[in-house]
Design brief:
- The chain has helices at about 25-40, 65-70, 130-135, 190-205, 220-240, 260-270, 280-285, 300-310, 345-355, 360-365, 395-400, 420-430, 470, 475-485, and strands at about 70-75, 85-95, 100-105, 115-120, 140-145, 150, 160-165, 175, 215-220, 245-255, 405-410, 435-440, 445-455, 455-460.
- It is α/β, with parallel strands linked by helices.
- It has a domain at about 60-260 and about 325-425: Rossmann fold (3-Layer(aba) Sandwich), CATH 3.40.50.1820.
- Strands 1, 2, 3, 4, 7, 8, 9, 10, 11, 12, 13 and 14 form a 12-stranded mixed beta sheet that branches.
- The longest helix has 19 residues, at about 220-240.
- The protein is globular and about 65 Å long.
- About 50% of the residues are buried.
- The structure holds 2-acetamido-2-deoxy-beta-D-glucopyranose (5 copies).
- One 2-acetamido-2-deoxy-beta-D-glucopyranose binds near residues 100 and 178.
- Keywords: Carboxypeptidase, Disulfide bond, Glycoprotein, Hydrolase, Protease, Secreted, Signal.
- Pfam families: Peptidase_S10 (PF00450).
- Its EC number is 3.4.16.-.
- One of its GO terms (biological process) is proteolysis.
């Protein structure tokens, strides 16, 4: 295959597309680009520890009377009939700046009064939970290849919970700020505050959920968002000496946890999965230093080795090393035979077409202010990111110390934040083992492997899944979330179904 000279310019660039995206900036590129920037000395990104905002002006929480009913979605265009309720709309998080976040909420198929509330966040930074989470991973519907009609996902997580998808921060998807200079102030801390203010307002709008057991889940860069939001909730509960939000636990998958181990684990995975040569891996081992305190520019030898690795993986979807690529991004007039079990690598294009339709936006109560840009799966308008701690391990430790359930899962075919990275990051926490490593089962098959640590941290792999675990292994992912929410260990017997 022809070597692409462009690849020499970049550090971790990843393109899963052979058909080059025109509009669609994909989740599969965003994180790679972000790392590339963050690892540079001159990035300007603040990498110090996360600090929650302690004071939130009460004027940011508004009465939400009557707004829930207005947000009810009768039916999405092209949607098959279902019996659960859906809602979508905006929550203003800063009136003065005109900043509002878009949410999509699906109530549970059964027992919505007793099942917990689960917030799902995608990463990026800058990628949409509607694009990925709702429409390609764990939501109730997937988009047909015609970009117009929907089909059911039998493994939707609203079989286990009432699921809330949030497009965050402002500038992602339908979420916006009228003060567009706000987009340049984006970063982890501001995202956490806005997400928290969003929740306070959303729970006013949906008061029946205000004391419900609440969990936060997410993948990829949401490895930052989820613990940061959880930390903020705990802080505010403590300061107020009352349970403002009834947070019980968090779940993060293929998550950005600790830069040094994340990057080292990535190269070790590429080497152990026959994607790069031993020479290249040795070169990286010998010449690269990914420690956050190492401020020197990387050496020529390190650059040469990582460039070599970049070339080797260029034509592989590094977010699922065994997955096919999307070779034709055109929509089809007649929908291709859909399959939840066999993920279509061109799905981003179908979702892009669907969510940019006027009738869809109207039905979802989205884009009410007629934004001047398209809906994108990953934001083009957030161009700067001010702060991103090099590690979130202290937050995970704090959540555990406060009795929250913490689960970390990993699709074992992801090469971007692979299982090796997550294992190295957990190892850094030096936790004592409670239940030693064993396979977990579903339908008489190994669903993955799990190890449970003292202090209540569960690590679980999902076998055969890439970065977006529920896209590739929907049934195993549903089993995982059910066990997480029930607080039951993953089954260690083959007879489990
Ligand atoms: C809270 O916000 C209101 C309205 O924007 C403002 O008038 C007030 O000064 C703020 N309070 C504090 C303590 O910042
Ligand atoms: C943003 O501006 C539009 C047009 O003036 C207005 O309708 C909308 O309510 C504003 N959004 C917020 C969150 O204030
Ligand atoms: C917090 O609330 C508990 C129970 O209502 C009370 O006993 C305690 O004194 C309070 N602590 C503070 C610091 O207000
Ligand atoms: C891509 O798919 C479209 C729609 O099915 C088809 O018309 C077109 O010929 C295909 N293009 C290529 C290069 O295969
Ligand atoms: C919002 O609507 C306008 C006008 O229809 C459209 O041009 C724009 O692409 C839409 N933007 C988003 C984010 O949906």
């Amino acid at each position: 295959m022809e070597r692409n000279p462009f690849v020499l310019l970049v550090f971790l660039i990843v393109s899963s597309m052979v058909a080059a995206p025109i509009h669609c900036k994909k989740q599969t590129q965003t994180l790679g680009h972000f790392y590339e920037r963050k690892m540079k000395r001159s990035s300007g990104i603040d990498k110090s520890g996360f600090k929650a905002v302690h004071y939130i002006n009460k004027s940011r929480v508004h009465t939400q009377q009557g707004m829930k009913e207005k947000d009810r979605i009768e039916k999405l265009p092209g949607q098959p009939g279902v019996l659960f309720q859906q809602y979508g709309g905006y929550v203003t998080v800063d009136k003065a700046a005109g900043r509002a976040l878009y949410y999509y909420f699906v109530e549970a198929y059964h027992s919505k009064e007793s099942l917990p509330l689960l917030l799902w966040l995608n990463g990026g930074p800058g990628c949409s939970s509607l694009a990925y989470g709702a429409m390609e991973e764990l939501g109730p519907f997937r988009v047909h290849s015609n970009g117009k009609t929907l089909y059911r996902n039998r493994y939707s997580w609203n079989y286990a919970a009432n699921v809330l998808f949030l497009e965050s921060p402002a500038g992602v998807g339908f979420s916006y700020a009228n003060t567009t200079s706000d987009y340049d102030d984006s970063g982890d801390s501001k995202t956490a505050v806005d997400n928290y203010v969003f929740l306070l307002n959303w729970l006013e709008r949906f008061p029946e959920y205000s004391i419900r057991k609440f969990y936060i889940a997410g993948e990829s860069y949401a490895g930052h968002y989820v613990p940061q939001l959880a930390h903020t909730i705990l802080q505010h509960n403590k300061n107020a000496n009352t349970t403002i939000i009834n947070l019980k636990g968090i779940l993060i998958g293929n998550a950005v946890i600790n830069d040094e181990t994340d990057v080292k684990g990535m190269y070790d995975y590429l080497a152990s999965h026959a994607l790069i040569s031993d020479e290249t891996a040795n070169g990286i081992e010998k010449h690269c230093n990914f420690a956050p305190e190492d401020d020197s520019e990387s050496s020529r030898e390190c650059d040469a080795a990582t460039d070599e690795a970049g070339q080797d993986i260029y034509y592989v979807d590094i977010y699922n090393i065994y997955a096919p690529l999307c070779h034709n991004s055109s929509l089809t007039i007649r929908p291709k035979e859909p399959s939840v079990a066999n993920f279509d690598p061109c799905s981003d294009y179908y979702v892009y077409a669907y969510l940019n339709r006027d009738d869809v936006q109207e039905a979802m109560h989205a884009n009410v202010t007629k934004l001047d840009h398209d809906w994108e799966p990953c934001s083009d308008i957030i161009r700067r990111w001010g702060d991103s701690p090099s590690t979130i391990i202290p937050l995970l430790q704090e959540l555990m110390a406060n009795g929250l359930r913490v689960w970390i899962f990993s699709g074992d075919a992801d090469g971007r934040i692979p299982v090796t990275s997550t294992k190295y990051s957990i190892k850094k926490m030096k936790l004592a083992v409670k239940t030693k490593w064993h396979p977990w089962y579903l339908d008489g098959e190994v669903g993955g492997y799990t190890e449970v640590y003292k202090g209540d941290l569960t690590f679980a792999t999902v076998r055969g899944a890439g970065h977006q675990v529920p896209s590739f292994q929907p049934k195993r992912a549903l089993s995982l979330i059910k066990h997480f929410l029930d607080g039951t260990p993953l089954p260690d017997t083959l007879n489990y179904n």
